[in-house]
Design brief:
284 residues; alpha/beta; Rossmann fold; Transcription Regulator spoIIAA; 2 domains; four-stranded parallel sheet; three-stranded antiparallel sheet; 10 helices; 14 strands; globular
Length: 284
């Protein structure tokens, strides 16, 4: 099947989620392209042209945020609240007019507010949680006429009701596909000082009251092997040697031995790359 992954994010973030999902679809044997909203100069016309040329069977839309803050020097405190919903809605309406492709929603912003997004966009299907296995399973069942409504983590509208299928956590993260950063214009990201990002684990043992990651990813750590983590670094370097690569873990240095093992693996392979960390946890 021909699958178009749309990274709807327009803020300065790495497209890590869309890259992993695109890699999963590629690994399952599908023809995959991406449309990246972040650097589109005329998003409506560029999206129309991409869909017309590629004619996808399935369009997956990754929603990273619902709202965010952007720099606006004319606003109080130099920041302004940004609502992504109208832009996503406009994009979906254009897709409906120009394509008969099946539309699937996903991404962190969809995880939290799945039913609201389906209603707001007048769509019927999305996948919450970890989609590296769930999305290829959806594609397989769609292609073969199977039951897409039992895919782990799916949420769908049917008979006037919203139905949710429980998510499944991936225990063997080494078995997931490599992120398809080769489908993205990494030159553009590096020019804007945005690094490609990968994750080394999922789950969180902390109980921070302000953070939802534990409820999303579980309370125990599921670790990628250090060898697999560095395989991903090398995979990205084959697409484009990055100035910097980021780990987007909730906390990179927990468990400590896992973080140390990754660093040793990087040293042993003599990789020339600077690393950035989203978060370091201090544990006493």
């Amino acid at each position: 099947m021909k699958v178009l992954i749309i990274s709807s994010n327009t803020l300065a973030f790495s497209p890590s989620g869309p890259a992993y999902v695109a890699g999963a679809a590629l690994n399952a044997g599908h023809t995959v392209e991406v449309f990246d909203c972040l650097f589109a100069k005329d998003r409506p016309s560029e999206l129309d042209g991409h869909i017309t040329r590629f004619n996808p069977d399935v369009i997956g839309i990754s929603i990273r945020l619902v709202t965010g803050d952007i720099i606006d020097e004319s606003a109080e405190f130099n920041t302004r609240r940004f609502d992504v919903r109208p832009d996503v809605k406009d994009m979906v309406e254009r897709i409906k007019q120009s394509s008969s492709a099946h539309i699937v929603l996903g991404g962190p912003g969809f995880n939290y507010y799945g039913p609201d997004w389906l209603e707001y966009l007048d769509l019927d299907y999305g996948i919450r949680g970890e989609a590296e296995f769930a999305f290829p399973l959806y594609l397989e069942r769609l292609e073969e006429g199977g039951d897409i409504h039992s895919v782990p983590g799916c949420i769908y509208r049917k008979d006037g009701r919203v139905h949710k299928v429980p998510r499944e956590l991936i225990e063997d993260l080494d078995a997931t596909a490599l992120p398809a950063y080769e489908l993205f214009d990494l030159d553009q990201y590096f020019e804007h000082n945005i690094s490609a990002a990968i994750f080394t684990k999922r789950g969180c043992a902390f109980r921070c009251t302000f953070c939802p990651y534990r409820s999303l990813e579980g309370g125990h750590y599921r670790l990628k092997s250090p060898q697999r983590v560095v395989d991903e670094v090398e995979h990205i370097q084959k697409a484009k040697k990055p100035k910097m690569l980021s780990f987007c873990d909730n906390s990179f240095n927990v468990p400590k031995k896992h973080a140390e093992a990754i660093c040793h693996e990087l040293i042993d392979r003599k990789l020339d790359v600077r690393l950035g960390l989203r978060r370091i946890s201090v544990v006493s």
